[in-house]
Design goal:
The chain is an alpha/beta fold. Helix content is about 40%, strand content about 20%. The chain has a single domain, classed as Spore Coat Polysaccharide Biosynthesis Protein SpsA, Chain A, CATH 3.90.550.10. InterPro entries: Glyco_trans_2-like (IPR001173), Glycosyltransf_2 (IPR050834), Nucleotide-diphossugar_trans (IPR029044).
């Protein structure tokens, strides 16, 4: 393997990716990073004890490309732990996220880096996303352009695999919270931690990623996970000093949880299709 060399005239972006049983999509996801117009990046892939060919694929890329690093967990630990594991190896001034079943558009890293360099008041930059499932592209999601505390109270304001964050801010908040509560929703917890310390974010209205969202995504979110999200909201509201009457939004996950999954999928398809037009 060749020694990794970074261009000293340009900041380094560390792309962190936790993977688990995504052998069918991983190569295309990694290829989308290799195709970036901005070249001064490193990709750190952590396999969370996959049972398919995911680890084999990731390892092969790491052996071929010096700016890709492959690490593994000794046992299945979940996304928050795996991303923190990646952060232990990250050398970049900026941390970008991507999942093994999502794809970055070629100018994503260049666009987000340019934004953060020009807008120093922001620590987070996300983007809109093109939504697709097993049947192809079906919509587009556009989170709030300039998410406020009030937006965060109502729901998650960034698409996790679309974000780039200043590494210094990630260090100050201690990365992701690892707990049973954040087995899911670790990103929502992170936004609360960042915003509670005064950091702010922005969403580029142009889609910079292709984000996989299908029926299985709704099935994976159990009622227990929704209870954990309610706890995350409660902790986040306290950190943000939210007025007591706004705590009513903490019950939103439970209300959504009692709705049929197919109804939720139909609702989201209609919502984001309308948003695209």
């Amino acid at each position: 393997m060749k020694k990794q060399n970074f261009n000293s005239d340009s900041p380094v972006i560390s792309v962190i990716m936790s993977v688990y049983n995504c052998s069918k999509t991983l190569s295309k996801s990694i290829d989308s990073i290799l195709a970036q117009t901005f070249k001064n990046w490193e990709l750190i892939i952590c396999d969370d004890c996959s049972k398919d060919e995911t680890a084999k694929i990731a390892k092969a890329y790491a052996e071929r490309y010096p700016n890709i690093k492959f690490i593994t967990n000794k046992q299945n630990k979940g996304l928050a732990y795996s991303l923190n594991h990646c952060l232990e190896y990250a050398k970049g001034e900026y941390i970008a996220r991507q999942d093994g079943d999502d794809y970055s558009l070629p100018h994503r890293l260049e666009t987000q880096l340019s934004f953060l360099k020009d807008h120093t008041r922001y620590a987070i930059v996300g983007s809109a996303a093109i939504l697709f499932d097993e049947n192809g592209i079906w919509g587009e999601r556009r989170p709030p352009e300039i998410p406020t505390k009030n937006d965060l109270i109502k729901g998650c304001t960034f698409i996790h695999p679309s974000v780039m964050i200043r590494a210094e801010a990630m260090r100050i908040v201690g990365g992701y919270t690892v707990s049973e509560r954040t087995r899911r929703g670790q990103d929502y917890d992170l936004w609360f931690k960042l915003y509670s310390l005064g950091y702010r974010g922005y969403n580029i209205t142009e889609p910079l990623i292709m984000y996989h969202e299908g029926l299985d995504d709704y099935k994976r979110k159990s009622f227990r996970a929704r209870i954990m999200e309610m706890k995350t909201r409660y902790i986040g509201y306290r950190a943000l000093h939210v007025p007591l009457w706004k705590y009513v939004y903490a019950f939103k996950p439970l209300i959504v949880g009692i709705m049929p999954q197919k109804f939720l999928r139909s609702y989201h398809h209609a919502k984001y299709k309308l948003q695209k037009n």
